[in-house]
Design brief:
heterodimer, A: alpha+beta, five-stranded antiparallel β-sheet, 25 helices, 43 strands, 27% helix, globular, B: alpha/beta, five-stranded mixed β-sheet, four-stranded mixed β-sheet, 27 helices, 40% helix
Chain lengths: 1004, 723
């Protein structure tokens, strides 16, 4: 038997190559995963996505759920490889696609942009061809790849399920996305061809053997146009060739999902946004039917009653049950499920308003019967679950709980809680993150949070079937329902001075909006009405819809109302709204008050209405959630940065002595947008001289020994300055808000500074490391911008030079730092910082020399609050002779509020205490966030009961006896002390007391 | 760590008490949900709510066992009645005798097979059905595999186990497996050339590893000169020929991976040797999770030649400078685990394994056995590494590839047992020796396990290039079809390659010509370009191309064809030409090439494949029933990670079950046009395109091949089944 190998040689060898189970690149080299590098932030890659060229960096920074860049320990962003999905998002950002095109061309179910892609649902499958370097031909891949996870590579040609054209009725008529792909592709190819032919001509010109005259520009252009037309034709063929494969596969996968999991439950339509249905509508698997249900009118994933049209005719359980929720005689329960005792009846509602709501009680009972895995606030419907992994990652990646996992294998896989327990019996804290992440309504809400964000507003019913309270005649405000909020539109003017419309809440998961109904209210304001007061803590921000407002500096400083201590600026307090009008704003500004709302710092200005107007007042949790969407971040993030920079420049110690008018110039100079020319591309771009940077706790901002590039102003938080000599790290000082650093390195050539420098300093290297102690925001001014600033404003240079000289002669650089330094003995500074004492504004401090450990303080606390729970624990670390007890410190930059899903913990008014509202859901995030162990989770009745989702625990925190003692009076822990050993001090006072004791020789 | 801890807990209690799981979670700082993910993924683990029954009879239900009547055993002489205690009772398995199915147990040559487990958790004198609480139990688990017996014997065994006796298991050691004839008189182990030690008694144990260490006392680093990008592969092999003979011999041998995909072993080793990992950690993992039905050659290799497997791992580790080796063996192979552990001990004693190799303090390469928690999917190499990392055995999305980011994210070689077992022979006898063992021009030898309707089902080492017909028909090998029946069908890669007739129908001439030209595209292109350069005329070019096609047909197609005469109604005879599968050489690349030519598996489908497990079906077999059984296997073993496989495999099973049911439905009025084949073809295209690993890509092969090639097996309907 002969096996011919001559003709077949290529085939067999080819066969062997195909055998390779290794991924190879377009040239047959093995693909090696090399972790993305920071160099790749600047390495640009162009891919062709459904015919449109898109250029993006090979790597992008890893971000958290809110889009903040995550930095490594060295303070620089962590890179991750850019994916095809990133490229698609960029097309939307550039206006070449509409946002809905993303859903049409690259639908995703298991992916969310703030999660690590797992690529399990495969509905974002696309076809990829790569250009071989060898012969320049396109090499099509046989398998499809998931767009959410597949890394971009140069010259990749990606085909989605619709290829070049969207079918009716999805094709855009006008506006963004209405230009056909070949418009962009032809331009791109023409440019490339012109360059290519031009290069050839130049090569020929250098070749002495070549005598033909060079081609003219017109000839080159004509030749390029012909080549580009040919390229467009080829690309069109490629798109037409592979789109059907993608389309067919996506349709089959969608049918798989629907056949098994979709069972319409009209009663729950208004509780979630059904992303799966929005895909199924585009594949023709769902058609609307006549319905009595209200049309929720949401852009994508609108929940309407519709019929399932199987295209393959695969079997479907006619009663809509696959036996996942619980077993029956006909349909066996999952073999991998822990048996559940039926009927499951949940605990009686603890909430007063639900207990006596017969409708809700009946519904609750029915929920438990139909969906026994449910908990007191979330309905778990396994029949709708598509095991997309989103809740699993939400619970473990976005939130730190890791209660949700998978149970079973293969077809029987489903989500489960802890050791496959009922959600009520598991360690689930019901933070709602899973419900917000669910794309199909397998996890839906049962009750509202009923926030009490606005003290003067009527209470929200917890039963979500009950309507929100209607405004009474004459009321100036009303609550927005979830639908109202989701469809709310705000007009604004963007950086290019274009008028645009922004839907701030459209991207928030609908379930989350429903859960938090009552957190957005529409408020009509009259002329002269004050929206918010400078210096007060505020938990809300305002979207401006209508009217004119003025921003007023009442001279209450940007610092805390209790007196920050660092600010030398003593301006006489004026009545609210009578200070300098800084600026007048109209609704084009979009949002005001977001700085205080997002950072839990006092308001930096008073805002007063000039005309009558309409604003939408929202709580922080909604702003946080909105910022998960890049589209909303584009708008809100920019405003935040601009306002933050402007505010800092107004309040910074550096500009303190400069006259007001001159300071406005500085602000405009640094924060005003200006045009710069990119030296590489020659393109004009808008750039700021000052840039806002966020730094995580523990990360370095500048590192000793690194070259000096920039000057920094601290906007928020505290940093420590350390020097490492001979491997030993010394804490030199701390610096905090409104202070600045990094100027000495930029002034090395100044005649007053230079003689004072040693060799190391003259080398233009950092002489110390600056590390963030808590989440810090700094404004970074680049070396060039710093030069410009000093040239333009010599008084600033003089001040900085003076500071630098003072610093080099002693150890402190700035007056602020000097003052801080005076407070704490230098040998105790390290302890002071590591114990977080700099944060405290009202720490409970016990003088161990006089304290007899009688525990009166603890008892007084429990007695005064009348619930048997003490808010303080007479335990903690010692600082000198003092013990700082575990009790709320009223931090300058409190981290307890970060991520509270229902905005229950907050500061308001002008006092320092953290208050926890009754609508706290007991998710324990604040307890986890507090680095000082001040917040406890308690059960309302039995303190020993198992902490499970069935019983609502609540967060409990020291409230400085808010409402129990007159404002400004000592709380009971202090006043009850029989030995006058208990005090409420801020960090500097404590430092000073220890210094005194140290000097007396009585320090501990 | 967690997987092995769970096994220990289960071994102690017979199940996994919740309290123990909670203790494990808090001791290791692992969330409970993560532990539940692992516990519920592997069928071997039993949760507290699902305590094992008093006696558990697990009947292998796959392929060969199904063919041999496993379905009947499930109703084992009335035992089934007492096997379904009330599901809602507090302890539903208490005191029960449960008979149910289990995935392939790897004894297909002795089908049907059962595994009987009895939990003797009882104090002496206590009633057999009592479950004492924790602490007071005595761990006496009777877990034994019985194979190759009649239903009546199985009935007696199970009754004896229920009565408290412990009938002796049918061990692999006691079973004389059918295999090649003995080559060296008096040496029973000299059946296979893979074992150089049986062929040449002058070799010391672990001679190949000793040779390597003598030749390279210090680790050989990948030369810096060859690291530059753009270095030609030839430069590397030329360097190796001079300086690294062991690796060079492997390259010369052309040894392919024996796990199914056929990646050259040299490439994996070279890549890992070259890779520089953080902390210099690299691993060698031997994939002994042989769970594909019909495949049991690794079982014999691990049992009869464990020293070769261990030495293969050591050679791979020494060549690539790896830091540790693991041999991953399915837990149903206890004898094999013991044999390998003993071989590791010997290797340590010989100084070629463990720490301080040959007494050198700076060189070490420990090897250990990792007992698999079970499941076919763990044979997928990335899923295997996931299982070793205490996660669900779910395949990874690739790239990155394992040789760069494998176990613990470090460079890792994952090789099949047989691949590694060949390496000592190649190291001792040379690469050319291995090449010469084949039918030219192919390379090497390979071991197959054959089961089903053959006279001598067993494990055979054959030269690559011998034909399928030789393997099945030769008296040295399987000895033909049992009971002198005719062959009907073959599964050439366990369930993955579908079920094919021995005689495959040919596509029509025009289609065949088109496919040949597609296959030869690159070669024809070259011919065309050459002629064009020499200014040949168009007709000359066409002639030259036609000659090439004709040459291909004459050399590569005609030899495989068989003409069968069919007498017609009018008395004349027509002959129809078939592609004769039995004439195919046993080479996996040839199988793939002809797969494309014959269009098996439909558009884009993966049809004919050549795996290590071949199952033969004689005439009279119910092909549709077999195909549905194959499909059920994939459904049962799908990991559930990606949607197309998780739901697709279930839907395929549902379609198959309906087809079987419809066949029994004799009422012609209720027959509907059958579009199953079209539906399956559509599903196939999507599943092949979008599944993460090959399980989802091959899951539709059995049904689509059965419906294509055995239309008479499918239910009759108004629509044409082959439409």
């Amino acid at each position: 038997m002969a096996i011919s190998l001559d003709v077949l040689e290529t085939l067999y060898l080819g066969g062997r190559e195909q055998e390779a189970s290794f991924a190879r690149d377009e040239d047959g080299d093995l693909i090696r995963k090399v972790a993305a590098t920071r160099d790749q932030f600047r390495e640009m890659v162009t891919i062709i996505l459904d015919g449109i060229p898109v250029t993006l960096p090979k790597a992008v920074p890893v971000t958290d759920a809110l889009g903040n860049e995550r930095n490594g320990p060295d303070g620089l962003p962590i890179p991750r490889a850019s994916t095809i999905f990133d490229a698609a998002a960029l097309l939307v950002h550039q206006g070449k696609w509409r946002p809905q095109d993303l859903n049409l061309r690259l639908p995703v179910l298991c992916h969310q942009r703030h999660m690590t892609p797992v690529a399990v649902c495969r509905v974002c499958s696309v076809h990829v061809s790569k250009r071989r370097k060898r012969d320049g031909k396109l090499a099509p891949s046989e398998k499809l790849v998931p767009a959410c996870q597949h890394e971009v590579q140069p010259d990749m040609v990606v085909t989605g399920r619709f290829g070049g054209y969207l079918p009716d009725p999805y094709a855009p008529k006008n506006g963004p996305g209405s230009k056909p792909w070949h418009f962009y592709y032809r331009a791109y190819m023409t440019e490339a061809k012109v360059k290519e032919i031009g290069d050839q001509e130049r090569r020929k010109a250098r070749d002495p053997n070549h005598t033909a005259p060079p081609k003219s520009a017109a000839e080159i252009a004509a030749e390029a146009a012909v080549a580009a037309d040919q390229a467009v034709k080829t690309m069109g063929e490629t798109l037409d060739k592979y789109a059907p494969q993608v389309k067919g596969s996506v349709e089959v996968v969608t049918e798989f999902l629907l056949t098994d999991h979709h069972h319409p439950d009209p009663e729950r339509y208004d509780r979630f946004k059904d992303e799966m249905s929005s895909i199924a509508r585009t594949t023709g698997h769902l058609v609307p039917r006549a319905t009595s249900l209200p049309d929720l009118n949401l852009d994508e994933g609108a929940a309407v009653d519709e019929a399932f049209v199987p295209r393959l005719g695969l079997g479907r359980n006619t009663d809509g049950r696959t036996g996942r929720n619980f077993g029956s005689a006909k349909i066996p329960k999952h073999p991998t499920s822990r048996p559940i005792a039926l009927p499951v009846v949940g605990p009686p509602p603890a909430d007063e308003d639900l207990k006596y709501d017969p409708e809700w009680v009946a519904r609750d009972r029915e929920d438990y019967e139909r969906f026994p895995y449910s908990s007191r606030s979330i309905v778990v419907d396994h029949d709708r679950c598509i095991v997309c992994d989103r809740c699993v990652r939400a619970c473990g990646e976005i939130k730190p709980f890791s209660v949700i996992g998978h149970t079973g294998k293969g077809y029987a896989t489903r989500i489960s809680f802890d050791l496959d327990e009922l959600m009520n019996d598991s360690g689930c804290v019901q933070c709602g993150e899973c419900m917000s992440s669910c794309p199909t309504g397998a996890l839906t809400l049962k009750r509202r949070v009923a926030p009490r964000a606005f003290e003067d507003a009527p209470p929200i019913p917890k039963n979500p079937s009950q309507p929100l309270p209607k405004p009474k005649p004459g009321d100036k405000s009303r609550f927005l329902s979830a639908i109202d909020a989701a469809t709310l539109e705000i007009d604004y003017v963007d950086a290019n001075k274009t008028r645009r419309t922004f839907k701030p809440f459209a991207t928030i998961p609908f379930a989350y909006l429903r859960w938090n109904e009552g957190a957005v209210r529409e408020r009509r304001v009259d002329p002269g009405e004050i929206l918010c007061e400078q210096g007060e803590y505020g938990r809300t921000a305002y979207f401006l819809k209508d009217g004119e407002f003025e921003v007023i500096d009442d001279g209450r400083g940007g610092g805390s109302p209790a007196g920050r201590g660092f600010s030398k600026r003593k301006v006489k307090r004026t009545a609210v709204g009578t200070g300098t009008v800084l600026t007048v704003i109209d609704p084009r500004a979009t949002i005001v008050g977001e700085l205080a709302c997002l950072t839990a710092r006092p308001r930096t200005a008073t805002i007063r209405a000039r005309t009558s107007g309409v604003v939408y007042e929202v709580t922080r949790n909604l702003l946080d959630m909105a910022q998960r969407s890049p589209a909303a971040r584009d708008v809100l993030g920019k405003i935040y940065v601009l306002n933050a920079v402007r505010t800092l420049l107004r309040t910074s110690q550096l500009f303190h002595d400069i006259p007001d008018s001159r300071r406005t110039e500085v602000v405009d100079f640094l924060a005003g947008q200006m045009t710069v020319t990119d030296p590489d591309t020659g393109k004009q771009e808008l750039a700021d001289r000052a840039e806002l940077r966020r730094v995580e706790a523990g990360q370095a901002i500048v590192t000793q020994g690194n070259p000096v590039f920039a000057f920094y102003l601290i906007r928020l938080g505290t940093v420590k300055v350390t020097r490492t000599d001979g491997g030993v790290e010394h804490v030199i000082r701390r610096q905090t808000e409104n202070d600045y650093f990094g100027h000495v390195g930029l002034l090395v050539d100044h005649p007053k500074v230079a003689p004072l420098l040693d060799k190391e300093q003259r080398g233009g290297r950092r002489t110390a490391t600056v590390t963030a102690l808590d989440p810090v925001e700094v404004v970074r001014i680049s070396g060039e911008a710093f030069e410009d600033l000093c040239d333009r404003f010599p008084e600033i240079r003089d001040k900085l030079v003076d500071d630098a000289v003072a610093a080099l002669r002693s150890t402190s650089q700035t007056p602020v730092a000097k003052k801080a330094e005076e407070a704490v003995p230098s040998e105790r500074l390290g302890d002071f910082l590591t114990q977080g004492l700099y944060q405290g504004q009202k720490m409970l401090v016990l003088d161990l020399h006089s304290c007899t450990r009688c525990d009166e303080c603890t008892r007084a606390c429990a007695d005064a609050h009348g619930d048997g729970h003490s808010r303080l624990l007479r335990d903690g670390l010692r600082f000198g002779q003092f013990l700082v007890a575990a009790s709320c410190r009223s931090c300058h930059t409190p981290s307890c509020m970060d991520g509270c899903p229902v905005d229950a913990i907050h500061r308001s008014g002008s006092s320092l205490e953290m208050l926890i509202d009754d609508h706290c859901i007991g998710c324990s995030l604040c307890e986890k966030n507090c680095p000082f162990g001040s917040i406890q989770m308690v059960l309302p009745t039995e303190p020993t009961a198992k902490r499970t989702a069935a019983v609502v625990q609540k967060a409990l925190n020291c409230d400085l006896c808010h409402g129990l003692v007159p404002a400004g009076a000592d709380p009971f822990c202090v006043s009850a002390c029989p030995h006058e050993a208990a005090f409420r001090w801020d960090g500097d006072t404590l430092g000073k007391k220890v210094r005194v004791a140290d000097e007396r020789g009585t320090g501990g | 760590m967690i997987v092995q801890r769970l096994r220990a807990i289960q071994d102690e209690f017979g199940y996994l008490p919740d309290a123990e799981l909670r203790a494990l979670a808090s001791a290791t700082g692992t969330p409970l949900a993560r532990i539940q993910e692992v516990v519920s993924f592997f069928p071997h683990f039993r949760a507290e709510w699902n305590k094992p029954p008093f006696v558990h009879v697990q009947v292998c239900r796959d392929l060969t066992c199904h063919l041999r009547g496993a379905a009947h055993l499930l109703g084992l002489e009335g035992l089934g009645e007492c096997s379904r205690p009330g599901a809602d009772s507090e302890d539903r398995n208490r005191g029960a005798v449960v008979v149910d199915g289990v995935s392939c147990l790897g004894r297909c040559d002795r089908a049907p097979v059962i595994c009987v487990t009895r939990l003797d958790h009882r104090a002496p004198g206590a009633k057999p059905d009592s479950y004492p609480g924790h602490g007071e139990h005595q761990n006496q688990v009777h877990e034994r595999i019985y194979a190759g017996r009649s239903p009546a014997e199985y009935g007696r065994i199970v009754r004896a186990v229920i009565a408290g006796e412990s009938p002796a298991a049918d061990t692999d050691a006691a079973h004389a497996v059918h295999s090649n004839p003995v080559r060296v008189a008096g040496s029973e182990n000299s059946r296979w050339l893979i074992d150089p030690y049986a062929q040449n008694p002058e070799f010391k144990p672990y001679q190949a590893a000793l040779n390597f260490l003598a030749l390279h006392p210090a680790p050989v680093k990948f030369p810096d000169a060859l690291k530059a990008k753009g270095t030609k592969p030839d430069a590397v092999t030329a360097w190796a020929k001079q300086n690294y003979p062991t690796l060079s011999e492997l390259y010369i041998s052309g040894l392919l991976g024996m796990g199914g995909a056929g990646m050259p072993a040299f490439v994996k080793w070279l890549e890992v040797w070259k890779a520089e990992a953080e902390g210099n950690e690299k691993y060698i993992v031997c994939n002994g999770d042989e769970s594909e039905p019909g495949t049991f050659k690794d079982r014999e290799l691990l049992l009869q030649t464990p020293h070769l497997v261990v030495e293969g791992v050591i050679l791979a580790g020494l060549i690539t400078n790896a830091t540790a080796g693991y041999i991953f063996i399915r837990h149903e192979y206890p004898e094999q685990i013991a044999a390998v552990n003993a071989a590791i001990q010997l290797a340590v004693a010989a100084g070629v394994c463990g720490h301080h190799l040959l007494g050198k303090p700076d060189r070490s390469f420990p090897v250990e056995v990792f007992t698999s928690p079970g499941g076919y999917i763990c044979g997928e190499q990335s899923a295997l590494l996931e299982a070793m990392s205490d996660r669900r055995g779910q395949p990874r999305n690739r790239p990155p590839e394992l040789y760069a980011n494998g176990l613990r994210d470090k460079p890792t070689v994952v090789n099949n047992v047989e691949t590694l077992a060949w390496s000592p022979a190649i190291a001792l006898n040379g690469g050319e020796w291995y090449v010469d063992q084949s039918v030219s021009p192919l390379k090497g030898r390979r071991i197959f396990s054959v089961s089903g309707d053959v006279t001598r089902p067993g494990v055979y080492e054959v030269p690559v290039g011998a034909t399928l017909g030789d393997l099945i028909g030769s008296k040295d090998y399987c000895g033909g079809i049992r009971d002198r029946k005719r062959i009907l069908a073959l599964a050439t890669s366990g369930p993955s390659g579908g079920i094919l007739p021995a005689l495959l129908p040919m596509p029509d001439e025009a289609e065949l010509d088109k496919r040949i030209r597609e296959m030869l595209a690159e070669g024809l292109f070259k011919v065309r370009e050459d002629l064009r350069q020499s200014k040949a005329s168009v007709s000359d070019i066409q002639d030259a191309e036609a000659r090439q096609v004709a040459k291909f047909r004459a050399q590569s197609l005609t030899p495989y064809l068989t003409a069968i005469p069919f007498p017609q109604a009018d008395g004349s005879t027509t002959t129809r030409t078939y592609f004769d599968l039995l004439k195919m050489p046993l080479d996996l690349n040839q199988f793939k090439a002809y797969n494309r030519l014959l269009g098996i598996g439909g558009q884009g489908g993966l049809g004919m494949m050549l795996g290590a497990g071949i199952v033969v079906y004689a005439e009279g077999t119910d092909i549709l029933s077999q195909a549905v059984n194959f499909t059920e296997f994939f459904r049962n073993e799908s990991c559930g990670k990606c949607v197309p496989c998780r739901i697709g495999s279930q839907k395929l099973t549902e379609i198959g079950t309906q087809l079987l049911a419809r066949r029994k439905d004799t009422a012609p009025t209720r027959r509907k046009p059958d579009n199953s084949r079209r539906v399956i073809a559509t599903m196939t295209e999507a599943m092949v395109s979008t599944s993460i690993c090959s399980l989802g890509q091959v899951a539709s092969n059995p049904l689509i091949t059965a419906l294509t090639y055995f239309p008479e097996a499918a239910p009759k309907s108004q629509g044409n089944a082959s439409a």
